[in-house]
Automatic annotation (TrEMBL):
InterPro entries: CcmF_C (IPR032523), Cyt_c_assembly (IPR002541), Cyt_c_biogenesis (IPR003567), Cyt_c_biogenesis_CcmF (IPR003568). Residues 326-653 form the Cytochrome c-type biogenesis protein CcmF C-terminal domain. It comes from Bombella apis. Its main location: membrane. GO terms for molecular function: lyase activity. It comes from the Bacteria. Required for the biogenesis of c-type cytochromes. Possible subunit of a heme lyase. This is Heme lyase CcmF/NrfE family subunit. PANTHER family: CYTOCHROME C ASSEMBLY PROTEIN-RELATED, CYTOCHROME C-TYPE BIOGENESIS PROTEIN CCMF. Residues 93-306 form the Cytochrome c assembly protein domain. It is found in: Cell inner membrane.
Amino acid sequence: MATIFCPEGGHFALALACALALMQGVLPLAGLRRTDSPLTALARPLALSQCLALLFAWTCLVTASLGNDFSLKLIAETSAINKPWAYKIAGLWGNHEGSLLLWVTLLSLWCAGLALLPGQSAARPEGLPLRLRARLLALLGLVGAGFQLFCLTTSNPFLRLWPVPADGMGMNPLLQDPGLAVHPPLLYSGYVGFAVPFAFAISALLDGRANALWARHMRPWVISAWALLTLGITLGSWWSYSVLGWGGYWFWDPVENAALIPWLTGTALLHSVLVVEKRNLLHVWCLLLAIATFAFSLSGTFLVRSGILNSVHAFANDPARGLFILGLLGLYGGGSLLLFAIRAPALPTPQAGFSPLSRESALLLNNILLCTLCAVVLTGTLYPPFMQLLFGRTLSVGKPFFDATTIPLTLPLLAVMGVSMALPWRQTRADRLLPRLAPALLITAGNILPAFWLFPTPLAALSALLALWVISAALCDLILRLRGLPEGSRQLHRLPRSLWAASLAHVGVGVTILGLCGMAGSQERLIEARPGTHATLTGRDWELTALTAHHGPNYEVVEAHLTIRHHDAHGPVLTELTPEIRLFPRQGQRTLHVAILHRPLEDLYAALGSVKEERDPQGQSHYSAILRLHENPLASWIWLGGIVMALGGGLHLLPSRRRPKPVEGELRSCR
């Protein structure tokens, strides 16, 4: 098996996949143009063959890493003999070449999923039209071919190294963490997944039609990519909180923002595609957002690999690679925007309208606010590097700027989210709307005084009230719709799955906002302590009982033992925490591993900053530690909300037992 999955075999498979991707991109389009069904039918087998070739290439790279093949430059720079096997695999996407191979492999898996989707037939009229599928696969093949060519020419993961070292350098110690082992694949899956809605948008522009049935076929792909990106961002935020040791969850790092930007436009796209499907409106919004979201995903790839950012996430080792990706971004993003400018005005204009007091209006306002938020984050992220590039001025744009600009936009967005759940399609009257909103309004109003008493600032209290408004509006809408069912059929499963999914997603947003508001009241104390020292924080006693040392698989550990008691040093023990410092001798680096007690209403958080040795006049050694102690109210709600949001997306994707209703503008063929 080791002979089969050799680096040369992986290199050949990558080159074969690139050739197959080019064929997948060219031949089906030629067949569609000449109405040549044999060429059109090649899209499916070519997509599956490309996926198999890339999976083979990825398996070859994993085999080389597990086998400590340090003749590969990638393995020598990111692995070591004593590195745990799980991180020998995870380390492959903790660098430029391996992460790019994972990127194109994930794209091929999305293509394979589209190729395996049942097509339209007499027995399955709701299936994806075969000619549309061929065009989508061809467009995705062209996207994949560009990145695979990039992988082969400038970022070859199978590049040999001579002389072969006896051992590798090991991976970045910060990345040797379970959260970072899972976070990048989820994030990349979300990035790459938005290539499918992008292909739908380009296909609609080429075909000259974007109707309700087109949106129905696109919707599951939008939701899948959005849910995976949500999970990726959530896990990355949790890693920042639990590993970096700063006590925070989001630092407005440029690469963090690069993931947030497509999430914002992807959320707007998700709502727009629902409007197109339900009401055959907002086509232009849907097309533009699909293009923009994928372009922003590519921009994140460019920022990480261009060398213009200084971040723990960045692979800033060769700016020439960034220029290659910038060229791909210009080709795919710029070319698609040019096509949009030419073809979008010629799209059929829907005759139907909608009232200002309707769900369509609420979702349109939602799009405007989300896109404005995206523009603000994009400006704050790109302004410093452009000032450095153009004028040589070094600027820092951080938390004060983003808080001051994003919070005023988030508050009205939350207000609209609560109202939108109660609004029907087309139009309604205020006297009908207010009774549906009354329960949520009463719940929110009843918590005004507790909110201003519990939360540390008026802004945090107001944000928490709006988060509660979103949660209560979603739950009350579910109850009202359940009561609206006929007698005898008021079971939860009778409600549409899409309603459950939307309610879960909105509840998740509200829970996350509550967590963020709670963290505004975080209490922190920085102390220097010897074993036996006591410190008080928020009415609890924290005692450093011992400092110990031991060995890990490829690192040395210094561990602090903390005992936390209620009230004072004589109170009952609440818990024990053991924060660590891990020293990696090969890299000459150290990492912090915090200890956290997660509780429903708060986190008790301890980080060990450093350990000092002092000698007394008798020559005996005494050790002291720098400790960072936190009490973080509602901290876990931040990540709980992200998981609930993603679960809402996953619920929407579950197969429905109901047959899809016919929609206007049937898409029978793809010209």
